[in-house]
Design goal:
Strand order of the largest sheet: 1-2-3
Order of helices and strands: HEEHEH
Largest sheet: 3 strands, antiparallel
Radius of gyration: 22 Å
Number of strands: 3
Structural class: alpha+beta
Helix content: 25-40%
Oligomer: single chain
Number of helices: 3
Strand content: 15-25%
């Protein structure tokens, strides 16, 4: 029996897409789990390592009256943004998982793709500034960026 080569290639391509999607989802899940665990654990102020990662959520609060005229408040997350320490390598993106701060310091000094003029310490890196589609146009992204800038200043960044 002859096998249609193009059909096999198509099936192989579809399988590879499924595998890639699974691995990407797994990587994101591991990264998110790391962030949640670190956040729940908290940061020790005596430790010289700085807080590695912050996720800022912007919440819109609405209220309405119930049948008795009593106010009922509803919170909805309308935007998020992230700030983390990352090596100052302009050609690289932040990884989807959390690296220890010590690893980021090492990469900042000795990592591949480093620009000799770049700082040799991790820098604050803003990412994933997201606002719900139906909430755009209300300047929420400016509020989120302002919060990230404030955290950056607390970290000693300019």
């Amino acid at each position: 029996a002859l096998v249609d080569k193009s059909k096999l290639e198509t099936e192989a391509d579809e399988l590879m897409v499924r595998v890639e999607n699974f691995l990407f989802s797994l990587t994101v899940l591991i990264g998110l789990t790391q962030r949640v665990v670190r956040r729940e654990k908290g940061y020790d102020r005596k430790n010289r390592a700085k807080p590695d990662h912050n996720v800022v959520c912007l919440v819109e609060q609405t209220h309405q009256a119930d049948q008795d005229g009593k106010a009922i408040y509803k919170d909805q997350i309308v935007g998020i943004a992230e700030l983390s320490w990352q090596p100052p390598i302009p050609t690289a993106n932040a990884p989807p998982f959390v690296l220890p701060f010590v690893a980021k310091e090492f990469i900042s000094r000795f990592g591949p793709g480093r620009d000799a003029a770049s700082p040799q310490v991790p820098v604050a890196y803003a990412s994933n500034v997201l606002v719900w589609k139906n909430k755009r146009g209300r300047q929420y992204s400016k509020v989120l960026m302002g919060a990230l800038e404030g955290i950056g200043r607390l970290w000693g960044c300019d």
